[in-house]
Structure formats: structure tokens, C-alpha cells
Specification:
Helix 1 crosses helix 3. The protein has 365 residues and is mainly alpha-helical. It contains 17 helices and two strands. The protein is globular.
Length: 365
């Protein structure tokens, strides 16, 4: 059957007992990755399979960790079981069947249900990658699941009614590495492995900037989703910084909290902009001729910066009903403009500088 972009994954449910590589890395990947699929789809061909299967396995782990209908200790056990499967240290069949039976049926999103039921096939694809790619995928999935494990061990059960905060900035910085900075590291390794001439400059610096790239994107998520996370007991804003502002984690649930915590948010936005500057340097290390790889970096940076601009203009940034999210039309505008601008360092620099200047003007008010 020929697929349109709107073909739902549920159309394939009768054949899920033996899903193909094409299905897993095509319709299913698109269904569970949403906007990130745009980035995956534009990658150079050699990078797509390892990055795609890494995303599928990490998304499956994330779904396990976030399924609140299952007790946290059970989720942790299943998460660690999946990690062992990925690293080849557990009997895959039994673990995969258990994940499918205990977690898949709890999913409201059909794509995520299908993903959990297709884990065995995803692990087969992993086993068919080159040895170097297998090692890299296992490393990134291991690190990402350590971040999810950190969440489950650090914060109270979502239904407890309690809120806990990370202790200090170093804890937040470490967390952003575990759940996103490591992705920039993995991405850089995949680029060197599959498009070796696509990165210009010192390898150590590029690796460090790749880590900061991932941290920048995760900091946007932390700030944008803060109101929603608070209501499931998770406060990623560090306790030491909250105390300096005369606040506790529970205070952030109050109606007037957005204004009281605004200076703290601004402080974290400044730190996030520093990471974005490293991400921009990383992108300019990709030659203009490597258009696909450039676009794959440009899109998350531009979407992230425009989200920060919405955030600093949002007087109710801690109200989950008023989250700072770009509209679909804005995303399409970014995609179209960046496709035309990508070959020009001058146009890109002006665009980046303009967005950062707008954000900094708001921060200075």
C-alpha cells in the first residue's frame, strides 16, 4: 500500500506481529516522533537508520517511564529491563512480552501502543547495524534511560499531591545532559561516522558544543513545560535558586507565581541563551554544502529561540493552559525560510542575532 503523510499507524495493526524495517523507520517513527520526524527525514542517508532506531528505543523507554497508571517502582523495573535488552544482557523475548502486556494496553495514543508491541522488531534492527553504530545506539539509550531513572527515583509519584524540586543548578545541568546533552554527543559521533567531512573544526570543541546544543533544547522544554510538570510533582527549577527568590516548589502552583518567579525564569533563559550560542557555533561548523545536516540543526535552534521569545513575553508562563508553544503555521514558516537561508552564513547570522537580541531586550526590561 502506498502511504500518504496522513495514513494512521492504526491502519497497520493487523500486521503488527511482524512489522517490517520500512514500517518501523517510516510510518511508526513518524507517528511517535511528531515534529522531530522532520529532522530525521532530512538527515543524510547513512545516519537515518541508527538515529531512527535510537529514537524508537528511547521513545519506548520514555513511554514506560511516563505511564502514570503504572506504579513508579514497576515502571522503574520495566525501564531497567528494557535497558538490559538494548545492551544484550537480558532475555529479550520475556522482557519484551512483559513490556507489551503491562504497558502497551495503558496507552491512549495508538502509535505508542504499536511501538511498545514492536520492540522486538526494533531490537532486531539494532542488531543489524554495524558494530560501531550498535555501540553508539546502546550508549545513547543507556544514558537517556539513566535520565528517566533519575526522574523516577527523584520525584514523588504523580498522584501523591506532593512537589519536589531539584537541589541545585548542577543537578539541573546534569539532568539536561542525561536527557538531551548526550543526544548532541551521539549526533556528533554519527556525523563523524557517516558524513566525516561535514564538520569543520576541533573535534573536542565540536563535541562539547554538541552537548550544549542538546542542553539548550532541554532547557527550553524545562521552562516551557514547568507549569505542567509542577502538577505531576516535578519541579526542575533548582531549590537553591528558588530559595534565593524567596520561593519554594509548592509556591509555584499559586496563581500569582508566574510574576514572582519571573526573575528566576529570566536567569535560566540567560543560561539557556549561552547554550544556544554554542549550538549556533556548532551549526556554522557544518559547511553550507551539507544542506541536509545544516537544516537538521537549524530547525530545532530556530524553533527553540522563537519558543524562548514567547516565554519571556508570557506573563502567565507557569499556567499550563497558557504554555509558550509555537503554532503549526509558525513552524512551517521557519521551515520554509530556513530552507532558503541555509546556504548563507550571513542570512543565518542575521536571523540568529535578531532573535537573540529580541529575547535579551525583554530580559533587560
Amino acid at each position: 500500500m502506498r502511504l500518504s503523510s496522513d495514513t494512521p499507524v492504526t491502519a497497520f495493526l493487523p500486521v503488527m506481529q511482524n512489522p517490517s524495517r520500512a514500517f518501523l523507520l517510516g510510518p511508526l517513527l513518524k507517528g511517535v516522533s511528531r515534529s522531530f520526524y522532520l529532522t530525521l527525514n532530512v538527515l543524510p542517508a547513512g545516519m537515518r537508520n541508527p538515529v531512527g532506531v535510537a529514537y524508537l528505543l528511547a521513545r519506548a523507554a520514555d513511554t514506560i517511564a511516563d505511564t502514570a497508571l503504572i506504579p513508579a517502582d514497576q515502571r522503574l523495573e520495566l525501564l531497567l529491563s528494557l535497558r538490559r535488552c538494548v545492551n544484550g544482557t537480558a532475555a529479550n523475548d520475556d522482557s519484551v512480552r512483559r513490556i507489551a502486556s503491562e504497558v502497551a494496553n495503558q496507552q491512549k495514543q495508538s502509535d505508542e501502543k504499536v511501538l511498545l508491541e514492536s520492540l522486538g522488531a526494533a531490537l532486531v534492527i539494532l542488531s543489524e547495524l554495524s558494530e560501531a553504530d550498535q555501540t553508539a545506539v546502546r550508549e545513547i539509550v543507556t544514558t537517556l534511560t539513566q535520565g528517566m531513572e533519575y526522574d523516577l527515583r527523584t520525584f514523588p509519584d504523580e498522584r501523591s499531591g506532593r512537589v519536589s524540586a531539584l537541589r541545585a543548578w548542577d543537578d539541573l545541568d546534569r539532568y539536561t545532559y542525561l536527557v538531551a546533552g548526550c543526544v548532541g554527543e551521539f549526533w556528533t559521533k554519527m556525523t563523524y561516522a557517516h558524513v566525516p567531512r561535514a564538520l569543520k573544526g576541533d573535534r573536542v570543541t565540536l563535541m562539547r558544543n554538541g552537548v550544549r546544543f542538546g542542553k539548550a533544547l532541554q532547557m527550553v522544554n524545562v521552562l516551557r513545560d514547568c507549569g505542567k510538570d509542577l502538577r505531576i510533582g516535578r519541579c526542575y527549577l533548582p531549590e537553591t535558586m528558588l530559595h534565593q527568590a524567596g520561593l519554594g516548589a509548592e509556591d509555584l502552583l499559586a496563581p500569582e507565581a508566574s510574576q514572582r518567579a519571573r526573575p528566576l525564569m529570566f536567569d535560566l533563559v540567560r543560561r539557556t541563551l549561552a547554550h544556544f550560542r554554542a549550538a549556533i557555533d556548532y551549526t556554522f561548523a557544518i559547511p553550507a554544502g551539507s544542506l541536509r545536516l545544516r537544516l537538521a540543526c537549524l530547525w530545532p535552534i530556530l524553533i527553540g529561540l522563537e519558543t524562548l521569545l514567547l516565554l519571556v513575553d508570557n506573563d502567565d508562563w507557569l499556567d499550563p493552559r497558557k504554555a509558550s508553544k509555537l503554532k503549526r503555521g509558525d513552524v512551517y514558516r521557519i521551515l520554509a525560510r530556513s530552507t532558503l537561508s541555509a546556504p548563507s552564513n550571513r542570512l543565518l547570522r542575521a536571523w540568529f542575532d535578531g532573535l537573540i537580541a529580541q529575547i535579551e531586550t525583554r530580559l533587560a526590561r
